[in-house]
Amino acid sequence: MDKQVILASQSAYKKAQFETLRIPFETFSPDIDETRNENETPADFVRRLSVEKARKASELFPEAICIGADQCVSIGNDILGKSGTYEGAAKNLLKLQGKTHQLFTGVCVISGVSEIYDVEIHNMHMRKLLRDEIARYVVSEQPFDCAGSYKIEGLGISLFEKIEGNDPRAIIGLPLMKIVGIFNQINFNIP
């Protein structure tokens, strides 16, 4: 493992996840415009942002393996972003409660001329919630920096009745099974 690995993210969640792979890596904060393009599907949106982040890192670290990832929550074609506030988080959860929404996690790995990207999709079935349950959750977990305003790795799991998808870790922010699969394709094997 003599190649440098760059995670194009400053997210504490993504960093903690990537550390579980037990390989040395550095983080890089890509400065990209995260505005959704007109008529862009949620899958296309996270794919594009993931690719742009990995490319930005690759420009500065051309010899490294660069990983970009992004995530969004979609109900229908509406994307719910990070709330940033108590009111925004409560509003997001009111919109999602009792319904099924999709969580899209895009990833791109660039190594030399190889650029591999994919999108992991989870169907998230949120149970019906009372307003006071939402209020208690938001006060307790403060999920203001999370897509959809929940932290599935914490108390947010209590908001759901069912989750469908291939890589449960992707819900937190990084589709680790996809990343390891891509690493294997480029002969960077883990373990």
In one word, what is the shape?
A: elongated
Based on CA atoms alone, the radius of gyration comes out at 17 Å
Which CATH class?
A: Alpha Beta
Q: Distance N terminus to C terminus?
A: 10 Å
Number of strands: 7
* Average pLDDT figure: 94
What labels would you give this structure?
Maf protein; seven-stranded mixed β-sheet; 191 residues; alpha/beta; elongated
Short description:
The chain has 191 residues and is of the alpha/beta class. It has helices at residues 12-19, 42-60, 86-96, 131-141, 176-185, and strands at 5-7, 26-27, 65-75, 78-80, 100-111, 114-126, 160-164. The chain is 31% helix and 26% strand.
What do these coordinates show?
With 191 residues, the chain is an alpha/beta fold. It has a single domain (5-185), classed as Maf protein (Alpha-Beta Complex), CATH 3.90.950. 31% of the residues lie in helices and 26% in strands. The protein contains five helices and seven strands; from the N terminus they run βαβαββαββαβα. Strands 1, 2, 3, 4, 5, 6 and 7 form a seven-stranded mixed β-sheet that branches. The chain is elongated, with a radius of gyration of 17 Å.
